[in-house]
Design brief:
The complex is a heterodimer of chains A (about 325) and B (about 290). Chain A has about 325 residues and is an all-alpha fold. In chain A, helix 6 packs antiparallel against helix 12. The radius of gyration of chain A is 27 Å and the shape is flat. By secondary structure, chain B is mostly helical. Chain B has two domains: about 60 residues; about 220 residues, MetI-like (MetI-like fold, Orthogonal Bundle), CATH 1.10.3720.10. Chain B has 15 helices and no strands. In chain B, helix 4 packs across helix 8 and helix 4 packs antiparallel against helix 11. The longest helix of chain B is centred in the N-terminal third of the chain and has 38 residues. Chain B is globular and about 75 Å long. The C terminus of chain B is likely disordered. The chains are: A mainly alpha (about 325), B mainly alpha (about 290). The interface between A and B is large, with 101 and 96 residues.
């Protein structure tokens, strides 16, 4: 075993000058580790960088027979086609409406729920509520679709039975352009709000109990306690989550919309990702669809880098 | 003075309890409705629809026998189990070494690998380039098409990496002094100490693969290969039912009951592992990882 004779990394004085010999020496010592990582590195080369190589067809006129490399270049033609088309506004509007509405309506509810869970004296009840509100996060959107059918269907749906018992007309929520957006936004809030309390609860538990004791001595009411201690205590987390979500503003929930939408609601439900799928896989417009995906990825990259920079400055925390 | 303060606190607690109960009902009522719909007997259903309360003595499992009696459902269940087990195993096999390598401070090239890995997380050109890669590799009708593209989640890798970084260096050093190579250090020292993170990340991968339905729709053309969520989706969107069960005028269950029963069957494994998952995330393993 050669490893025994070689000095341990900690024994090499760090002030020594950097030499190729020493580098090779360390690399040889770590050869098992490289060997271990090899499958994952090959995996990344094929399955993460392979798609990046294929992404060049965004700037080409992709012909399957000519292959990715052999297809002729087209410059920014597909990007221009997309930006000048009528569906550009529609897709961007729908995408941003969904992500902003989910954030603006979901985040305050999650904060309120987390504070309520934190404040309650009934610990068993609290654990039970937590267990139940976390559960929907782990269910797939197909199951959610089944649940929504049972609640919303015009025939036997619970909500429509309630509407009818008050003398109203049943509403086909899932296929009505007037209601579809609300179905998407509210069903996402129903599914994810419970789970998103987990971060705020952790932040609430990290607040020093001394602060609450001092407030109790000073005679603070529950509302004052929440307003002056709990909320400021979790504010950095709220800011961080908001920034992170804004960085992903173009991710409006592909799986959810793919399951829930249908032709009658395309105009109010279609987002960038669902459009890319239909245009690319179903219509074989590979280059145009890839250009749109590339466009989304590039904007996403900029947004994430910017929001991470702001998060570093304001919350003294880096997301990555 | 003190008296009014206690009274305020009690009122506040009552208000909280009411609020939490309302939230709880909003979560529970839809599930309850699904359960009743799945178990309601046909004659009650045709007479009055789905009742809000149904005495347990009147429940019938007819819809379940009808669904499970058809070969497609057990087959899809088995397929889902295969995808989940295989997917989780491959994911962990690829994630653990990367996370461990990235947590080793004095590994030459660590920064480069980290940058290349992070870049794939920050920039994604979308679905089509992956689709062309998979179809180009002739992986259609192959479970690897579903498992490999998402096999390593960069986020999970980073969470695992920060866990490895937190392990005491002395133990690893001691093993190295005893002549262990890095492979042995990982296998004999690091992994036994990492059970919580392996379980947590493993469960996350398992939940992902169990729930995945889009890539199976995309890449699996053969009906025998379909996993449970895809079959469930086909059942939920279908108006005619005969492909999936013997459904006709003489069917002993309504279409709604069959759909609801399908939803419950797909949910059951999740209910079984849920208490487990919960034990790990309440321990704070996850939150710790997220907060790093």
């Amino acid at each position: 075993m050669t490893a025994k004779i070689l000095p341990l990394p900690s024994e090499i004085p760090s002030t020594d000058k950097f030499t190729i010999r020493k580098l090779l020496h360390t690399m040889w010592r770590q050869r098992w580790l490289y060997f271990l990582m090899l499958p994952t590195l090959i995996y990344f080369a094929v399955f993460k960088y392979g798609p990046l190589w294929n992404a060049q067809i965004a700037f080409k006129d992709f012909k399957p027979l000519l292959g990715v490399w052999g297809s002729p270049w087209a410059g920014f033609e597909h990007f221009e086609t997309f930006i000048n088309s009528f569906y550009f506004t529609e897709l961007m509007t729908n995408t941003i409406i969904f992500s902003v509405a989910k954030l603006v309506l979901g985040l305050p509810l999650a904060v309120i729920l987390a504070i309520a869970l934190h404040e309650t004296w009934f610990l068993r009840f609290r654990t039970f509520v937590q267990t139940m509100v976390y559960l929907p996060h782990f269910l797939s959107w197909v199951i959610m679709y089944g649940v929504l059918l049972v609640i919303l269907s015009p025939g036997n749906g619970l909500i429509n039975e309630i509407i009818q018992s008050f003398g109203g007309e049943p509403i086909a929520f899932l296929t009505s352009p007037h209601h579809f957006r609300w179905v998407v936004i509210l069903s996402d809030i129903w599914k994810e709000t419970g789970w998103s309390t987990i971060l705020y609860l952790a932040a609430l538990l990290a607040i020093s109990p001394d602060l609450y004791e001092a407030a109790a001595v000073d005679g603070a009411t529950p509302v004052q306690r929440i307003w002056y201690i709990s909320l400021p205590g979790i504010l950095p987390v709220i800011v961080l989550v908001t920034l992170l979500r804004l960085g992903h503003i173009l991710e409006a929930g592909f799986n959810q919309i793919f399951v829930l939408y249908s032709v009658p609601v395309y105009s109010v439900g279609d987002i960038i990702d669902t459009w890319v799928f239909r245009q690319g896989v179903l219509q074989f417009q590979f280059s145009l669809a890839t250009a749109v995906g590339f466009f989304k990825g590039a904007i996403g990259l900029v947004l994430i880098l910017v929001s991470n920079r702001i998060a570093k400055r304001w919350a003294q925390q880096s997301i990555y | 003075m003190l008296h009014s303060r206690t009274r305020d606190a009690v009122f506040f607690q009552v208000g909280l309890a009411v609020f939490l109960t309302i939230i709880l009902l909003i979560i529970l009522i839809p599930f309850w409705r699904v359960i009743v719909t799945a178990f309601v007997p046909l004659e009650i259903y045709t007479r009055e629809g789905v009742p809000f309360f149904l005495p347990p003595t009147q429940w019938t499992a007819e819809a379940f026998t009808q669904l499970l009696g058809h070969s497609l459902f057990p087959r899809a269940f088995f397929n889902s189990v295969v995808i989940t087990l295989l997917g989780t195993a491959i994911s962990l096999f690829l994630t653990v070494p990367l996370a461990y390598g990235l947590s080793t401070r004095n590994l030459p090239g660590r920064k480069l690998i980290m940058t290349l890995v992070l870049f794939t997380y920050l920039f994604s050109p979308g679905l089509i380039p992956v689709y062309l890669l998979i179809t180009g590799m002739k992986l259609t009708n192959n479970y690897l098409a579903i498992i490999l593209p998402p096999a390593v989640s960069v986020y999970n890798t980073l969470v695992m990496m920060s866990f490895f970084e937190g392990l005491p260096e002395d133990l690893k050093e001691a093993a190295r002094l005893d002549g262990a190579n890095e492979l042995q250090v990982l296998w004999n020292v690091v992994l036994p100490l990492s059970k919580p993170i392996l379980l947590t990340i493993g469960l996350f991968y398992a939940v992902y693969f169990w729930n995945e339905f889009f890539t199976p729709i995309l890449y699996l053309k053969d009906a025998d290969l379909l996993p449970l969520p895809v079959l469930l989706r086909n059942i939920l969107i279908s108006a005619s039912f005969n492909e999936y069960v013997e459904y006709d005028a003489f069917s002993s269950s309504s279409l709604e009951s069959l759909k609801a029963a399908g939803v419950l069957i797909t949910m059951i494994p999740m209910f079984l592992v849920y208490p487990w998952i919960q034990r790990y995330f309440t321990k704070g393993t996850l939150v710790g990882g997220v907060k790093e």
